[in-house]
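Hey Z.,

So I finally got round to the 9Z3 thing we talked about over coffee. Here's the setup:
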Amino acid sequence: MSLLDNGSSEIINPDTYFQTNTPPRTLGENENRVKEFVNKHNEAGRRIVLITSGGTTVPLENSTVRFIDNFSAGTRGATSAEYFLEMGYAVIFMHRQFSLQPYSRHYSHSKNCFLDFMELKSDGSIGVNSKYAPKMKAVLEKYQEFKKNETLLFLDFVTVADYLFLLRSVTRIMSALKEHAMYYLAAAVSDFFIPAQKMPQHKIQSDGGLTLTMDQVPKFLKPMVTNWVPCGFIVSFKLETDPALLVDKSRHALTRYGHQIVIANLLAIRKREVILITRDSEFQIKLTEDEIAENIEIESRIIPELTKRHDEWIRNADHVDM
Ligand code: 9Z3
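And the result:
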């Protein structure tokens, strides 16, 4: 017996969603930052990728005390950003506040306290613990290079509404880049939400049990592909836990929205196996046991494959097929 009732199948359309929900306060300011970043790197002839990363929250109250969240730590997005930067892309990193970030990810959510990476020297000064120094030096060099080139822009969101408003704004600005922009949608976006007008203003009182009714989040990929960035190279992720559903659901998303690639991943093995699905192909990327033992990151295989396909997309004038 299921405890779930999926209720009405009616989904509000994206336009209605944007008309009836409140944009984040920082939206205008972030739009200006994106315009400046896009102009600068476009003039420099650099390709730009938008990466979305981390989970979105769904508030239960307008003055929010409680919210529903999901598991995503933003590992996929933060790791991918490093490989895109290495391939020469400028990166707009749209991430859940406090989720993992490129470069700092190697230390920020570590089981070690940051003080464990340091050591007191005999002369009283402090330095990096010699055990960690070689890796830290390599990470630091790359980090300083992108700082110098200003090729990484951070934008953050918390709620699913923040995410959707920001995504629409950023993609519309990037649409001027036409096929030179890539969109890499790795964030774990909530499927359900409570519309602002149906939420209580104040903290829900604990006078008994709580029953929630949630609406379905509109399918934003449709307007994104059709209206916001019609020429962009769009890669979305499909997450499932049931292997029997994964490929069919991914293919369904591809035909429903008409974008270029769906990367199918199963929660339990997402760090070692994914399938890149296009309209007429399936391409598995799977790390071997040896590669896993050597801490090879699967994103180091995914990103070069995508940039190769992005090259083809740019070369292909009519954009009919990959
Ligand atoms: C993914 O499938 C990502 O690979 C993960 C990465 C969220 C699994 P972590 O942050 O995990 O590294 O821990 N992202 C997309 C999930 C999603 O919400 N997809 C939507 C869907 O499945 C379509 S855009 O319907």
